Inverse folding.
């Protein structure tokens, strides 16, 4: 044992340091920072076994149910512990993969430092979120893939599919690029079997309904499929071309800062060395696909999708560094990169320390506690969809009967009928395709009903609010800063200036700067379709015709040749 410690003392120190940072920064109680707006909803769903959101993350909720039983600290701390342990597990697999591919211990340690001290990784590993667990399962699947352990790979991929739909990208790429896995039908069946976890949704879907409609009115499985499809089609590829330049710059900032800036040098060497075969490498697509997905998303708040690319980018960086070392001048560069990564890691530890540096007042916890001032059977309609989930948890934990209203889903006709069945008066939506209508319907609820409560921001950058009685004052519902571009003669301004990357990663400026969305007919999806049509007409179809003609001509030539009757040698 002592000999093992002496041999691996550097690894022990690195892993212990990363674990210490994550435990220091782990949310001590509920917070809305670091994209943890989901935390209260996840906690309610995990503790009392309800569906959560459209896809529900069933395995994550079941794990959360177990971790919430730990008899220490707060519920938020216990649930967030899943993210901490997941990142530590990802670091272990990352170490093993890099050491196997490079045969250099120093590069394996370097890779763990890049990933474990990354701003993006830390920001998502200290809160109640699914992405740290998704990364752990993804890099675990890749480790088993390169070792040809197909059934273990299938288990990791299946577990990922049961946690988050983002894992479908990882599973699809690995299914496509690993031929032996594709041919191993038992492994494929094992992977697909984990989709049975989604039976969690119809099994647990019962009143009160937080996200899915009443199962008596609409089958919950059908609802799950249709809602998921509508969310995907609404988000992917619909970013306005006016916003696209800024999104690209923001993405470069998020990814560049997260991998340690200087590491772009070995990354460049890897890409250059493999430029002729990149499109045939699973590693390349596992790194690129989540980043491209985020660039094409309508919602800027899906920046955390890029986290799934980080373990694979880290492997590419270490492989590039291996190339540089083999050229004989990599030692100085690797030490310089390590210094930058460690320096950023120390700052990240300071910046993302929830409850101290970041969100010192724990705005989500304060809001949850303020619900105690609201009388029973009141209508509570917060400004912001992430606040309404707390009401379900509050009702269940305190045996109260507050009536939650989510402004974000007011355009849903099904949801309007649910509210009307509870005696809430509102002006129905005239056009369900216009999400801006939710603003006017929210005002109508305040105007037409007594005993309506809402929220007023006290510190938008930490999502801190006060819970106040509306008293028919519709001005408490702020005008949506949403540009709904529908006319051909509307010319919005191109956006080029990126945001502060740390403000993005902490979601500190989400309320103040991302509350607008340009829903334009001139979106990325439109231009991709146009490009695909032009490519088909000018390149693909002519190429196919040329190939067909060539086959026909070759056939004629071959048929004219005499049969070869020479003896075999």
């Amino acid at each position: 044992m002592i000999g093992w410690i002496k041999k691996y003392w550097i690894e022990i120190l690195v892993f212990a340091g990363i674990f210490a940072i994550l435990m220091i920064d782990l949310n001590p109680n509920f917070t809305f920072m670091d994209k943890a707006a989901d935390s209260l909803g996840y906690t309610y769903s995990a503790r009392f076994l309800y569906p959560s959101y459209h896809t529900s993350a069933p395995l994550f909720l079941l794990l959360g149910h177990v971790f919430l039983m730990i008899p220490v600290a707060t519920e938020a701390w216990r649930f967030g512990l899943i993210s901490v342990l997941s990142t530590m597990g990802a670091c272990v697999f990352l170490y093993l993969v890099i050491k196997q591919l490079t045969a250099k211990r120093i590069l394996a340690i370097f890779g763990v430092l890049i990933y474990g001290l990354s701003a993006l990784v830390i920001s998502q590993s200290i809160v109640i979120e699914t992405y740290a667990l998704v990364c752990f399962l993804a890099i675990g699947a890749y480790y088993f893939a390169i070792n040809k352990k197909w059934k273990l790979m299938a288990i990791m991929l299946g577990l990922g599919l049961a946690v988050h739909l983002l894992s479908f990208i990882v599973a699809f790429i690995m299914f496509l690029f690993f031929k032996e896995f594709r041919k191993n039908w038992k492994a494929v069946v094992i992977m697909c079997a984990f989709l049975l976890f989604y039976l969690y949704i119809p099994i647990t879907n019962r009143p009160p309904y937080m996200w899915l409609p009443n199962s008596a009115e609409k089958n919950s499985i059908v609802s799950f499929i249709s809602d998921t499809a509508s969310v995907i089609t609404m988000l992917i590829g619909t970013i306005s071309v006016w916003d696209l330049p800024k999104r690209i710059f923001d993405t470069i900032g998020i990814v560049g800062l997260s991998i340690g800036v200087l590491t772009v040098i070995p990354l460049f060497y890897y890409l250059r060395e493999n430029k002729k075969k990149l499109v045939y490498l699973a590693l390349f697509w596992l790194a690129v696909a989540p980043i491209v997905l985020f660039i094409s998303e309508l919602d800027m708040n899906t920046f955390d999708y890029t986290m799934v690319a980080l373990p694979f980018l880290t492997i590419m960086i270490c492989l590039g560094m291996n190339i540089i070392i083999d050229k004989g001048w990599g030692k100085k560069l690797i030490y310089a990169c390590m210094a930058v990564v460690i320096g950023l890691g120390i700052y990240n530890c300071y910046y993302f320390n929830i409850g101290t540096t970041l969100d010192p007042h724990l705005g989500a916890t304060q809001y949850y506690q303020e619900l105690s001032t609201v009388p029973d059977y009141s209508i509570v309609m917060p400004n912001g969809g992430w606040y309404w989930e707390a009401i379900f948890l509050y009702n269940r934990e305190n045996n109260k009967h507050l009536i939650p209203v989510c402004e974000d889903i007011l355009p849903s006709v099904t949801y309007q009928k649910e509210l009307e069945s509870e005696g809430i008066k509102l002006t129905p939506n005239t056009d369900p395709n216009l999400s801006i209508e939710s603003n006017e319907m929210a005002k109508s609820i305040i105007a037409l009903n007594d005993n309506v409560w809402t929220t007023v921001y006290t510190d938008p950058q930490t999502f801190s609010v006060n819970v106040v009685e509306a008293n028919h004052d519709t001005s408490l519902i702020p005008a949506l800063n949403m540009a709904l571009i529908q006319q051909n003669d509307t010319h919005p301004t191109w956006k080029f200036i990126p945001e502060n990357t740390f403000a993005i990663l902490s979601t500190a400026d989400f309320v103040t700067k991302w509350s607008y969305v340009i829903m334009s007919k001139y979106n990325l999806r439109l231009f991709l379709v146009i490009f695909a049509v032009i490519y088909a007409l000018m390149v693909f179809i002519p190429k196919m015709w040329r190939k067909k003609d060539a086959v026909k001509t070759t056939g004629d030539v071959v048929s004219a040749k005499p049969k070869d009757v020479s003896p075999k040698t």
